[in-house]
Amino acid sequence: MTMKLKQLTTAFLAAGLMFMISCKGKPKDSDVQAAVTTALQTTPGVSADVKEGVVTLSGTVSSQADKDAAESAAKLSQGVTSVVNNISVTPPAPAPAPDTTAASMTAPADVALKTSVDAIVKDFSGIKADVKDGVVIITGESKADRWKRLKIALDALKPKKVDASGLTITK
């Protein structure tokens, strides 16, 4: 009976010792969380949650390389048993294409002149105006007296020239 008691006591002590070693050797989730958070500081937009040593990564990065780097950094942290990588890859929006419309290719002075010309011409039905390289180009149809008033108003804007070759003048 003494032998059985010794064996039983030894078994309990061994079990207790194993329990203490296993509890002491396993890091707390809060410690793992701190280590992973520190490791992920170089990857903005990524966060981690730790439960029983399993790290779940989430957030958004701009490339697959950033996603992979975050996972590798988390795996290297002490106490991590596995990593679930839920990071989304969203590449940055492409740069806008250059505007090649006629308006964008016009000199800023032409844009300002065109705005002033349009404000004057709106009161003269049947007449259209455009501006190119500082020259006001008039097209359409007008009576002589109305054309004279329009010409005076346009000259006051000081364009390089007023080209009325496309204008038909009636009496």
UniProtKB/TrEMBL annotation:
<dbReference type="InterPro" id="IPR007055">
    <property type="entry name" value="BON_dom"/>
</dbReference>
<feature type="domain" description="BON">
    <location>
        <begin position="24"/>
        <end position="91"/>
    </location>
</feature>
<protein>
    <submittedName>
        <fullName>BON domain-containing protein</fullName>
    </submittedName>
</protein>
<dbReference type="Pfam" id="PF04972">
    <property type="entry name" value="BON"/>
</dbReference>
